[in-house]
Amino acid sequence: MNSIKKYTTLLLMLFVTALTACNKEELNEGKVMHVIVNGYNGSDHELEITLDTTVYKKSIRNGDLLIKARTISTFNRAYVYYTPEAKGQMTVKDLSSGKVVFSRPLPAKDKADFNFIYLDGKELEIPGIAANPGSNKLGFYLHYTESNDPIDIFLYRKDASTGQEYRHYLAKNARPGSWLSVDYVAAADFSTVNAMQAANLYFTKAGTTDQWAFRDNETLSMTSARSQFFPLAGENGLVQSYFITPGINQLDCARLFFYPGRI
User: Fold this and answer.
1) Which H or E element spans position 76?
2) Residues 6+ apart with CB under 8 A from 28
3) What is the domain partition of the chain in residue ranges?
4) CA contacts within 13 A on the Cβ side of 10
5) Which end is more exposed in the chain, N or C (fewer Cβ atoms within 10 Å of the end residue's Cβ)?
């Protein structure tokens, strides 16, 4: 009889232990949020990103997660948290001054994109653009302090087998230093993934096709259209904005929308 009681007690203890372990696993199971920080750091200092209490400091990955001076942001991380909902803030701090230059609450969802452009020591306002169900909206900001001459923006590709050239204008007479919003439906010659993989986005002096807008340099005045995720055939209602500026060796383009998986 005593042996039966001891055996029953042992089974009960094992059950309670297993149940407690399961509960702990549930409590410790992390949730993942895909976080993108889009934008541009126009200062001479590095910027550091913090998600709640997780600081992506210089010692992590040799500083690859910092927003370097005079470059676009490429911050793209899976953030793990262990509370029922994400809490706290996404903050950007100037490492030189220690000042927080940008802060937004983390959303209660599985993905988040934050758009932040830092120019002249302050945040550049990014206007909201209302979606149009019958079209798409593309926004552009051209940051170029060396000239205020108008600029044409167009898609271009050349058929490798026939030599046929295709060009589609997104905007004409765009001015640096201000936002521009245009309606866009995928042009017939730029409506598929294959077509966009062979296309480039060009910026030329207004009224020309080969006078380069930025420092008279073709490399600084064009970029691959493939990496910009422009709307394709059948896509409507999208809103996609871009911050454009010539870098040191290439044209820098910051996509101001959640882009993973667009194509």
Assistant:
1) strand 75-81
2) 82
3) 31-123, 126-263
4) 6
5) N
* Same fold for the pair 31-123 and 126-263: yes
Strands in 179-184's sheet, in edge-to-edge order, are 179-184, 136-142, 239-246, 251-255
> How many Cβ atoms sit within 10 Å of the Cβ of residue 244?
25
Paired tokens of 261: 């998986």
What architecture (CATH level 2) is domain 126-263?
Sandwich (2.60)
Q: Residue written as tokens 């010692």?
A: 59
If we measure between CA atoms, which residue out of 204, 251, 197, 252 comes closest to residue 229?
197
Between 252 and 25, the more confident residue is 252
Exposed (0-12), middle (13-18) or buried (19+): which is 5, by Cβ within 10 Å?
exposed
pLDDT band per the 50, 70, 90 thresholds, residue 222: very high
Query: So what's the pLDDT on residue 28?
Result: 55
Q: Tokens representing 153?
A: 């923006």
pTM, two decimal places: 0.86
Q: What is the CATH number of domain 31-123?
A: 2.60.40
Q: What is the distance between the alpha carbons of residues 262 and 50, in angstroms, rounded to a whole number?
A: 26
